[in-house]
């Protein structure tokens, strides 16, 4: 690996600056959670306010001196900024403080490196870290002579940097090739599910909103869930049975965060593609979070970036146990479920979510009456085998009257298996040509 990782338990001085520009503001409480998730020990949090960052050292000279004193007082060996620093700012601060400096992007990358478990996840994290570190590579060789030109004046520093950059470029190309293979396999799996017409539901949401807890509650799985940021990194797929719909693929995805580094969005694009190509998105929201509306906006920004904002969405207001609220379903003007209030931790309201999923995914469920002659007993038996018969009555002449309800795909698969024509039973399946001829005849 070409990147360096801080050891767990490092004592760190934290820096958080409020800017007048709302777009540049970060959340100090979330910053503390990120630091703890990375395994660092926050010694103190230095705060301040500025109109804009200093182009050389990000903060002012007075704040830099305050930082130096805090480092000595707490015996800290690391400074972490709750902001993205340019390579030159990071380098200048390190030179002034004589210690390692980490910015918000580097901190998130480190958490991702700790949490990646699958082969694909590790490759994606390494790719993001290498691309991030490639712009900061120079700091590792500042103790070496620079190439100045002229006979006898060429130092080893520049040569070593060029060698390392070449190694980095080679490694990045290698990871891209390996990820392309993984992505093609994932794409093939998605195409297979599409051919089988199996709906897919992706859980998305701000980090620590309770997605994995809800995922475990719905699928009886044991996906790692903890009260920390980015507890889940690698996507997990499970089969879920939904009434009136049948098997559904449920995906638990990485949580989003405010100002999620662009390199991470790019690196995890293949993983996030599960959300972009889902039949339905379940947006899990921490109902008790005072910043929940801001969090919702951040999630929608990332969804827009990966082209998933147009996918149908069902919102889930989780953690109602912290609000002392009752489980319920909110519906839109057409009566469709729009928001489900529940507590995944306590298991309250899960049946309402199952009902809402069935309603949202069962838009393509057929509900019709069918009269079968005695010689059509094979079709009648097949419908019973699928559990599609809701009611059955026998008529005097021997015909059977069935009330049938089943997903459209199951009906079409059944017709194909029995060699029957769907349009013989339901006019809506009449082919375009037959419909045209009928209209012409009329």
Automatic annotation (TrEMBL):
Keywords: Cytoplasm, GTP-binding, Hydrolase, Magnesium, Metal-binding, Nucleotide-binding
Keyword ATP-binding in annotation: no
Transmembrane segments: none
Name of the protein this chain belongs to: GTPase HflX
Protein role: GTPase that associates with the 50S ribosomal subunit and may have a role during protein synthesis or ribosome biogenesis.
Principal location listed in the UniProt entry: cytoplasm
Domain (Hflx-type G) ranges: 199-365
InterPro entries (UniProt xref): EFG_III/V (IPR035647), G_HFLX_dom (IPR030394), GTP-bd (IPR006073), GTP-bd_M (IPR032305), GTPase_HflX (IPR016496), GTPase_HflX_N (IPR025121), GTPase_HflX_N_sf (IPR042108), HflX_C (IPR045498)
One function term, GO molecular function aspect: hydrolase activity
Family note: Belongs to the TRAFAC class OBG-HflX-like GTPase superfamily. HflX GTPase family.
Lineage: Bacteria, Pseudomonadati, Pseudomonadota, Gammaproteobacteria, Oceanospirillales
Signal peptide: none
SUPFAM superfamilies: EF-G C-terminal domain-like, P-loop containing nucleoside triphosphate hydrolases
The protein's assembly and partners: Monomer. Associates with the 50S ribosomal subunit.
């Amino acid at each position: 690996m070409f990147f360096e990782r801080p050891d767990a338990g490092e004592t760190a001085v934290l820096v958080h600056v409020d800017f007048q520009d709302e777009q540049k503001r970060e959340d100090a409480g979330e910053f503390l959670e990120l630091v703890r998730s990375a395994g660092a020990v926050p010694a103190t949090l230095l705060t301040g306010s500025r109109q804009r960052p200093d182009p050389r050292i990000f903060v002012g000279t007075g704040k830099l001196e305050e930082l130096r004193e805090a480092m000595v007082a707490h015996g800290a060996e690391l400074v972490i900024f709750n902001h993205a620093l340019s390579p030159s700012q990071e380098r200048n601060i390190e030179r002034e403080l004589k210690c390692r400096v980490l910015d918000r992007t580097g901190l998130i990358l480190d958490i991702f490196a700790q949490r990646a478990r699958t082969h694909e996840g590790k490759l994606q994290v390494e790719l993001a870290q290498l691309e991030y570190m490639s712009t900061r590579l120079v700091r590792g060789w500042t103790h070496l002579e620079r190439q100045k030109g002229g006979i006898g004046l060429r130092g080893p520093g520049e040569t070593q940097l060029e060698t390392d950059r070449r190694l980095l470029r080679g490694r990045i190309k290698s990871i891209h090739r390996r990820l392309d293979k993984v992505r093609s396999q994932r794409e093939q799996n998605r195409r297979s599910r599409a051919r089988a017409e199996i709906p897919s539901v992706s859980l998305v949401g701000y980090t620590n909103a309770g997605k994995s807890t809800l995922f475990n509650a719905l699928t009886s799985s044991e996906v790692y869930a903890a009260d920390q940021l980015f507890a889940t990194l690698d996507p997990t797929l499970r089969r879920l049975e939904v009434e009136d719909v049948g098997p559904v693929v449920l995906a638990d995805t990485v949580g989003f965060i405010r100002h999620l580094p662009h390199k991470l969005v790019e690196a995890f694009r293949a993983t996030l593609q599960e959300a972009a190509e889902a039949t339905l998105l379940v947006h899990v929201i921490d109902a008790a979070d005072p910043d929940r509306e801001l969090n919702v906006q951040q999630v929608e920004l990332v969804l827009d970036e990966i082209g998933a904002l147009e996918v149908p969405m069902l919102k889930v207001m989780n953690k109602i146990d912290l609000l002392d609220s009752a489980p319920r379903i909110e519906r839109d003007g057409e009566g469709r479920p729009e928001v489900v209030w529940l507590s995944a931790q306590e298991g309250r309201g899960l049946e309402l979510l199952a009902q809402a999923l069935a309603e949202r995914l069962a838009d393509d469920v057929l509900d019709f009456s069918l009269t079968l002659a005695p010689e059509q007993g094979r079709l009648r038996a097949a419908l019973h085998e699928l559990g599609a018969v809701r009611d059955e009555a026998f008529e005097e002449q021997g015909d059977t009257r069935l009330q049938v309800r089943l997903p459209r795909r199951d009906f079409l698969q059944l017709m194909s298996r029995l060699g029957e024509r769907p349009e013989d039973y339901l006019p809506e399946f009449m082919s375009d040509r037959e419909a045209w001829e009928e209209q012409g005849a009329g």
